[in-house]
């Protein structure tokens, strides 16, 4: 039994740190939280880099919510898009976080895309888009149930207004219907008809993929749609980010990465619970 107390002392600062981290993650998600990353498998050729594109995007990120650019020699194309309800300072802060993640998460990949809760940024070799049109890049469905028919009706009503809403709302629209908050956004260079089509597809996918789940987020190449169910009322400001557990499927490398991260967090959480349990047993003995 002698080994346990010393183990407890050695590990408890770590345990407390882990608890704090988990508590922070459980609170309303920050606009800086990573949603997914996509990295091309191939590397950029020697000498090529996304640095020029990165610095142009960073310099434009407090002036607009969307910006696209090419490197001086036109070899690399890149863009950022901030969520429509962010202030310009939040947009700039979000882009400042996302752009350096290209290299920290993807190395010198031929193309990289980083989606945070509040913004996304991508680059690719000009003229060679890595994905096309309305392809689904990532989805996440809540692990809880919305609680049946009443919920699904509310959810579908909220979602059905997104398509017309984005077209009228210059590419971003958020709405609350009873207990459901729904949001959609298109990439800034999409025409309003292309945007409406993209969002229609994202909405259908979120209904099909997430079924009766209490939240859903579907990210296509050019747009995304999400909904969140708040049985005790939608918080003012809408809550913005997603909640609920990750859900596999959809067939992309990016999702596996996210699943591993979530799995890692769950493992840490389990370890913490074990430690706390061991500690409470020891306390009782004292
Ligand atoms: C930005 O996007 C628009 C629309 O897709 C395109 O016409 C334009 O050439 C892009 N700008 C750059 C610098 O690539």
Automatic annotation (TrEMBL):
Annotated Gnk2-homologous domain residues: 28-128, 133-232
CDD domains named among the record's database cross-references: Gnk2-like
GO biological-process terms attached to the record: plasmodesmata-mediated intercellular transport; transport of virus in multicellular host
Keyword Membrane attributed: yes
Keywords: Cell junction, Disulfide bond, Host-virus interaction, Membrane, Repeat, Signal, Transmembrane, Transmembrane helix
Location relative to the cell: Cell junction, Plasmodesma; Cell membrane
Signal peptide span: 1-29
Topological type in the membrane: Single-pass type I membrane protein
Protein name: Cysteine-rich repeat secretory protein 3
Organism: Platanthera zijinensis
């Amino acid at each position: 039994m002698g080994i346990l107390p010393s183990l407890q002392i050695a590990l408890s600062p770590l345990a407390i740190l882990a608890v704090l981290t988990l508590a922070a993650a459980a609170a309303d998600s920050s606009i800086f939280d990573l949603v997914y990353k996509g990295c091309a498998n191939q590397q950029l050729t020697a000498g090529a880099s996304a640095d020029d594109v990165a610095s142009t995007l960073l310099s434009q990120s407090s002036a607009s919510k969307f910006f696209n650019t090419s490197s001086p020699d036109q070899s690399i194309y890149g863009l950022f898009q901030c969520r429509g309800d962010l202030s310009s300072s939040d947009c700039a802060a979000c882009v400042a976080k996302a752009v350096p993640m290209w290299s920290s998460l993807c190395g010198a990949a031929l193309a990289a895309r980083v989606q945070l809760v509040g913004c996304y940024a991508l680059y690719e070799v000009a003229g060679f888009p890595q994905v096309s049109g309305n392809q689904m890049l990532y989805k996440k469905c809540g692990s809880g149930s919305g609680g049946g028919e009443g919920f699904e009706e509310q959810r579908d009503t909220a979602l059905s207004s997104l398509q017309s809403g984005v077209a009228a709302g210059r590419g971003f629209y958020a709405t609350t219907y009873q207990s459901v908050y729904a949001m959609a956004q298109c990439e800034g260079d999409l025409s309003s008809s292309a945007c409406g089509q993209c969002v229609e597809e994202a909405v259908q996918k979120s209904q099909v993929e997430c079924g009766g789940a209490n939240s859903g987020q579907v990210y296509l190449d050019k747009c995304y749609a999400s909904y969140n169910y708040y049985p005790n009322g939608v918080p003012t400001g809408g809550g913005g980010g997603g909640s609920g557990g990750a859900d596999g499927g959809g067939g992309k490398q990016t999702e596996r990465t996210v699943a591993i991260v979530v799995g890692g967090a769950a493992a840490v959480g389990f370890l913490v619970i074990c430690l706390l349990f061991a500690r409470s047993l020891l306390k009782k003995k004292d």
